[in-house]
Design brief:
Chain B: One of its GO terms (molecular function) is structural constituent of ribosome. The complex is a heterotrimer. Chain A has helices at 16-26, 65-99, 108-118, 135-138, 163-188, 193-196, 210-217, 223-237, 246-250, 314-327, 344-359, 365-373; strands at residues 33-36, 62-64, 205-207, 253-255, 269-270, 276-284, 287-294, 301-303, 334-340. Chain A is α+β, with helices and mostly antiparallel strands. Chain A folds into four domains: 9-51; 69-138, no CATH class; 173-256, no CATH class; 269-373, Ribosomal Protein S5, domain 2, CATH 3.30.230.10. Chain C is elongated and about 90 Å long. Classes of the chains: A alpha+beta, B alpha/beta, C mainly alpha.
Amino acid sequence: MALSSPLPTFFCRPNRQLYSRLCLTIFPALNRKVTTISSDLVNGGNQSVTKSDNQPSAKAITISRSMKAYMEKVKKHDELMKTEVADYEIGKRHLANIMGADPDTFTQEDVDRAIEYLLPNGLFDKKARPMLKNPYEIYPKRKAAEFTFEGRPFHWLYFTTSPNYYNILYDITWKLEGLKTLEDQLYNAKKDISSESKPLNIASSEWITFDQLKNKVLEKIQEKDYQHFIVMMERLASHPLASKEEEFIMQYRNKLHLASAALIAPPVETDADGRSFSWAEGRRKDSWAQVKVYKPGTGQVTINEKDLSYFSNLLYRETLLFPLSVTGLLGQVDIVADAKYGGPTGQAGAIRFALSQALCAFVSDDIKEQLRLSGMLTRDPRKRERKKPGQEGARKKFTWKKR
Amino acid sequence: MAASLRKALISWQWQNCLRSRQVAKKCVQNQISAFSSCSSLHVEVQLQGVPQNLVEAKGETQTQLDIALQHKDYFGLKHLVTLRDLFNARVHYGHNAGLRHESMTPYIYGCRQGTDIIDLEQTLSLLEQALDVCAHIVYRGGMVLFVCRNLQFLPWVEKTVRELGEYAHCRPWKRGIFTNAANIFNTLPIYPELCIFLGTQDTVFETHRAVVESNKLLIPSIGILDTNTDCASLITYPIPGNDDSPESLALYLHLFKTAILKAKEKRKQDGIVS
Amino acid sequence: MAGSRREKLGSILSRLTGLMQSGALSYEERPVWYDIVKALPPKPSPPQKEVPNIFYPEDFVRVHFYEKFVQTDPVMLTTQIKTIPQRFIDKYIELHRLNAVPTSDLFQQTVSVLKSEGFHLTTHQEKAAATAIKSSFKQEPGSSSEKVEQKLKTVNLNTLFDQ
């Protein structure tokens, strides 16, 4: 729209044609209902009837100028794509002939392999390397028409220019309102909210990124719009009844890969008495330990055929029992441990490490992840540092006076 | 200078209106049976006492749309709302007198202890006309865009509009959505046939940009004007009323919803398909 | 005016009519709203005016009341109990309507009627005296305390338990 200032129509009278064109650029609203056409044009038929009535006529499909323009654009694009696809097919056949393969059964994978062979390329970015692909994969995707033949937009938020994005915000708002209403109802009925729904577990996932959101809505949105989205989502997810809307929330979260899922838990075995157990070995400093965990049990602890008093220091006993309190199995398992070498610190640590691994056989993935996060499933690599010659110890120096 | 000129213009308009009213009265007295179609319709609104049979289009065959338009109350909206409803919905509460805009003074009944009270009798008649216009536009297949920037009511407005199958814009207004639509939407532009402003302020200090843009693009508008609005002249069908209280907003939403639904129903009954 | 984007000139109807008169837009191409706005034209806005203040008759009675008396009873928003000033105003207007008392005596008459009904109206002087007595009572707890206390207690007893 080149003309934003008022037209000088007061002073000069332009010729009628030019004038009407100017008006069309300035008042496109007036163009909305223009022609009335028969329905077969919609299917690409010839333009048969162009009717201009005194009143907007009834029972005929009217087509807006916007739709016409859109259809022309689509037609042009389709023609372009047609020639591109034809080129692609010819190229594929040439490539098959070069490689000595059957052109009719030459697949896209064969194309990729052939190009890698014929045109070896060391460029780092894969997008920069030569390729031959279907044009539909390479050309950017186009949004379908957003309005009907009468020029009525499909989406009720069309005029906001970002209907998909704002629709998400609308959904969040009303879902949160729904949860609040439910909470009020529960409160009035004097029911316990925690019994009605479990808290939403979102620790194993994170919000989708800005780019992912952009791809989801297919609209130009700003960083601040993304921040707004995150704030609203956080509000919804932190509601005590959020698990009722878990499905909706999880649409906008990426699942995190659990590091603990990669850990292999020891198998559960059965001994001669029919008790199920698992065992594992652990090391800390110079010590070595082997631990057997029996479940079900009564909380008995046996270390080198003694009870917990094997360690006189309370700190060591506590160290040893820590994995049990994390998993919540204190008093539900029996523990039999053998510990050798080193001192009490090392032995306690080695038993703890072995115990944690053995416990993994009996607990869920979530608790396994908690064990991992609290450092129970990691070997402590610290060792005694050797004494250096010319020094008193590993780091300590002899006393030295200059004079 | 400009203010006095505007005042003179307004008073001239007012006198004109009075004159046309007198003319219409005379017409009735003289039992003149036919007017030219345009002016007769004009007069009919000015003077509600004109009998239906006096209003007749000259020459042309009447279509259903014409018949609907000449009907006094085709959609049955005249007694949809009463003065008491408006009062109960707190429509009469204006802003603090210090915030008053002089263009709104004709619609203010008085000032009670520093708060402006809106003249509900004027509101009622203007509201009824606006509802009628809205229904007629929907009846002819027009699109309606609801605009409201009050964050408190945003979800309610959007919900109602979505149920109606009309269009809403309650989010920040991107400059040029109307005036630069071709570039923003990347198609030949599409415009609504009517903008309804449930509050004409964008922020506390600014008039909504859509008020200006719709006026530039010749899109008629209906607006709820509180006593502090400065854009009364830019709104085609102004309705003085409180735009800050949930009760009044709920009432407006209900009224426009009813009008639009009635119009759509009539449209279906009369078999009007665009 | 036609073709201009100056929104402050004329109305949308006049601008569109201008477009049609100049031939830039044919009658058949007119927008949907054109017929409607033409048939139901917006009412011209009435001229600007001075905004009057709104007063009710009771406002003047109220001012008169507060010139002489103070409000001592608590205002309860949750109950329907009338405050003493409100009772006074109601009685005043009732007497005025009966037209039995000359306007100059109306105020005194209302006071006496309310007093006969058992309501105590506290004047500004009484309130000032009460606070003065109260403060002196605080300073010297021994002196004539019982009488003062008795007096303070009786001030509002009637009204407090009236309802």
